[in-house]
What we know:
The complex is a heterodimer. Chain A is 0% helix and 51% strand. Chain A has strands at residues 4-5, 10-14, 19-21, 24-25, 31-38, 45-50, 56-58, 64-68, 73-78, 87-95, 102-104, 108-113. In chain A, strands 2, 5, 6, 10, 11 and 12 form a 6-stranded mixed sheet that branches. A 4-stranded antiparallel sheet of chain A has the order 3-9-8-7, with no helix packed on it. In chain A, β5 (31-38) and β6 form a beta hairpin. The mean pLDDT of chain A is 90. By secondary structure, chain B is mostly beta strands. Chain B has no helices and 11 strands. Chain B has strands at residues 5-7, 10-13, 19-24, 31-37, 44-50, 53-56, 65-68, 75-79, 88-95, 104-105, 109-113. In chain B, the strands form 2 sheets. In chain B, strands 2, 4, 5, 6, 9, 10 and 11 form a 7-stranded mixed sheet that branches. In chain B, strands 1-3-8-7 form a 4-stranded antiparallel sheet, with no helix packed on it. The A-B interface holds A 4, 6, 32, 36, 42-46, 49, 51, 90, 92, 94, 99-107 and B 4, 33, 35, 40-45, 48, 55-56, 58-59, 91, 93, 100-108.
Amino acid sequence: AQSVTQLDSQVPVFEEAPVELRCNYSSSVSVYLFWYVQYPNQGLQLLLKYLSGSTLVESINGFEAEFNKSQTSFHLRKPSVHISDTAEYFCAVISNTGGFKTIFGAGTRLFVKA
Amino acid sequence: GAGVSQSPRYKVAKRGQDVALRCDPISGHVSLFWYQQALGQGPEFLTYFQNEAQLDKSGLPSDRFFAERPEGSVSTLKIQRTQQEDSAVYLCASSLDRRQETQYFGPGTRLLVL
């Protein structure tokens, strides 16, 4: 069965520092990959997604993620974080071998300190 | 409406009580999903509707859980004879079409079973 591993449960970082949130998924023939963000007291929102084409995808607020098929990874990066980026980040995958069910990782709590 | 809405936002139930959780998806969205999110975990898939058809209910944890979407819009998740292990946040999401590439999440219903 498809699974998603987020290697870090919490990532504390200082404002304006770079950050990487790691995500690995179990191998599958074809997958769609997603990062969702959950700000405090808000619902889940799609941050960015990889469906096909360019392996580097970007969000409107400066995050980017790169699909690496050989390493089955989809790590999320931002070169300079802001206090407002403090949130829970979830990596998710849809495999077209599993009935298009979305599988989420356990989440990584990003805490940006001043 | 502007987004996915869920009601109630909070529910406290005594063990053994039946509960019903409602989801109003974005108007016109074909696909509807229910997820269960335990504390400190990512959302776990429960069931999927395409219009009024329940195409995947493989994530429902027991036969005490039942979901319906009779007219292809509003959906209800019912839990019979609630147990303490049912305590979680129940998330509803909808997407415009069958491809499920972008899911829009509601704020969730936090269920506490005493």
